[in-house]
Specification:
CATH superfamily: Isochorismatase-like
Number of helices: 8
Structural class: alpha/beta
CATH topology: Rossmann fold
Order of helices and strands: EHHEHHEHEHEHEH
Number of domains: 1
Helix content: 25-40%
Shape: globular
Length: about 200
Amino acid sequence: MTNAVPELNPSATALLLMDFQYAMVGAIGDKAATPVVANAVTALDWARANEIPVAHIRLGFEPTEAAEIPDTNKNFAPVRDAGMLRCGSPEAEIVDLVKPADDEQVFRKTRIGAFSTTSLGHWLAERNIDTLILAGITTSGVMLSTVREASDRDLRAVVLRDATADLDPVVHEVLVERVFPATADVVSTAELTTRKLAQ
């Protein structure tokens, strides 16, 4: 199910590009990643052209943070043990095609959701932003967690269905077709970027 693009006020809207890092892009493979990254680039160019704030969310661990991950964390204990996604490592870097501009905010997190372990909520509140356009890898990871948290914070979420992907394509389809529409507007990147914005 796809929703219509809601009326957007550029001054109250932000684009969140989440976990577009070499490790995540590589994990879903070139066939899935290439169009997803291309759509993220389209959304990024559109946001910049319309002076919509952009925030980049990235996952990365300092050595002490990795050491503190408990065995009970099924998502990140294996990351800890493999020494992956350490700050400064090539795999943890944001891919070049969506590299943040100097004036764009970057939030580093140590858990799945964009709000978790970051000051994203404070940043949005300071700017009176009530609408989030979301793109990210993976659909069942950062996208799902952030859509849910945005709803709990009374924020409007606009999910770019073709600017996200998952390790499991079936899970991706279930989320964008059946789960996300209950709490978010689910649209294509083309539908978003060709819609006239409110003045």
